[in-house]
Amino acid sequence: MRALAILCLLALVACAPAKKPSFDAADANKDGKISLQEFKNLFKSSAQDKAEEQFNRYDANRDGLFDGSEYDLWNQVGSDDSLRQW
């Protein structure tokens, strides 16, 4: 019975979606903003062009940086998990 419970738990963990990086984790230099390069670091090397497109699309104030609300919006509606590294 215990072995069955462990197997069920392992199956649930294996099927769970990968955790997306938080804003703080993506903000490598801890300046409170995410630069284009920090954003690109979240993506596979083959998806760097797509990363830049998405960054430019969701950089609402066009300052070349993501603040928390811009990152959250991208993370909720604009992200394509197949391009990410995690």
What are the defining features of this structure?
single chain, 86 residues, mainly alpha, two-stranded antiparallel sheet, 5 helices, globular, EF-hand domain-containing protein, EF-hand-dom_pair, signal, calcium ion binding
Explain what the structure shows:
With 86 residues, the chain is mainly α. It has a single domain (21-83), classed as Recoverin, domain 1. Helices cover 52% and strands 5% of the residues. The chain is built from five helices and two strands. It has helices at residues 2-15, 23-26, 36-40, 48-58, 68-78; strands at 34-35, 65-66. Strands 1-2 form a two-stranded antiparallel ribbon. The longest helix has 14 residues, at 2-15. Residues 8-18 have low confidence and may be disordered.
Given this structure, which CATH class is correct? Mainly Alpha
Give the C-alpha Rg: 16 Å
Fraction of residues in H or I helices? 40-55%
User: Which blocks of ≥5 consecutive residues have pLDDT under 50?
Assistant: 8-18
Query: What portion of residues belong to β-strands?
Result: under 5%
Please tell me the CATH architecture by its name.
Orthogonal Bundle
Instruction: Tell me the CATH superfamily.
Output: EF-hand
Indicate how many domains the architecture comprises.
Answer: 1
The overall pLDDT, averaged over residues, is 79
